[in-house]
Amino acid sequence: MDWLVSLIGAAIVLVILRDLFHTLWHPTRHGGLSRIVMTGLWRLLPPGRAIRGATGLVGPLGMVGVVVMWASGVAVGWALVYWPHLPEGFAFSSSLEPAEHSGPVDALYISLVIVATLGLGDIAPAEGWLRVAAPLEALVGFALLTATVSWVLGIYPALARRRTLALRICHLRRAGLMPRQLESDAGAAVLDGLACDITRVCVDLTQYPESYYFHDGPGDTSLARTIGFAADLAEQARLAEHAGVRLAASMLAAALDDLAAVLQDRFLHTRGTAQQVLTAYAHDHGSR
C-alpha cells in the first residue's frame, strides 16, 4: 500500500512534466491540462459578455493558473512519494520528534522545501533512494522556474507581433487604400509585407497557442477586428493588371488561408470557408 501511494505521486509528477513539455516545447492541437485551464477561463469570461475590465486579464490569469497548477502538482506528487516513508526514511534535527512529524502536511512541507531548493535541513532524506529522489525534485523545481520565465519571454513578443500587424492593417484602412492604388510595385510590396506578417502570426499561434486567449482589446490593436480588411485587399488585388500585385495577392490569400486553418484546427472548430472561420474568430474575440 505504501508503494502504491508513492507510485500515484510519481504518476502525478509525470503528468505535470508531460503537460509542461507539450505546452512549451512540443505544442499539439490535442491540448492538455494547460489548454484546459486557458480555455476554461476564456469561456468563463468571453469578450463582450465578461465583467467589465476582466476580459483583458484572461490570458495573464490563465498563465498564472497554469504555473500554479504545475507547481502544486509537482509539490503534491512528490509529497505522496515521501509520505509513506516517514519517519523511517528521513533524518530529523534534534529539536523535532520524528513520530510527531510524519503526516501528509509534513510530507508536503518536505516537498516544498526541496522543490524550492531552500535546503533548511531540519528534515532530510536518509534512505538511499530518497537521497537520489530529493535532488531530482530540486532539478524539476529549477526546470519549472526556468520554463516559466521562458514561456513569459516567448509569449509576449508573439502578442506584440500580432498587435503590430493589427495596427498596420488599421493604418491601411484609415488611409483609404483604393484598388487602383495597388496597381504598382509599392502596392505589391504592401501586400507581400502583410502576407509575411500574417505568416508570422500563424507560426506564433502554433508555437504559443495560449496566446490566442489573450484579448487584444476593442480598438485597433485587435487582429480579430481588422483581419477582414486584409482579406478584402487580397480579393480586390487578385483582379489587378499588375503581375506583381496579382502574385502578392495570391501569397496574401494563401497566408490568410493558413491562418484560418490554424484557427479552425486548434481553437474554433468551425466547419466552413476561410472567410467564415475569420468571421468566427472576430466573434470569439468580441467583435460584433
Automatic annotation (TrEMBL):
It comes from the Bacteria. Coiled coil: none annotated. InterPro entries: K_chnl_dom. Keywords: Membrane, Transmembrane, Transmembrane helix. The chain crosses the membrane at residues 57-83, 138-159. Pfam families: Ion_trans_2 (PF07885). The keyword Magnesium does not apply. Residues 96-150 form the Potassium channel domain. The keyword Lipoprotein does not apply. This is Potassium channel domain-containing protein.
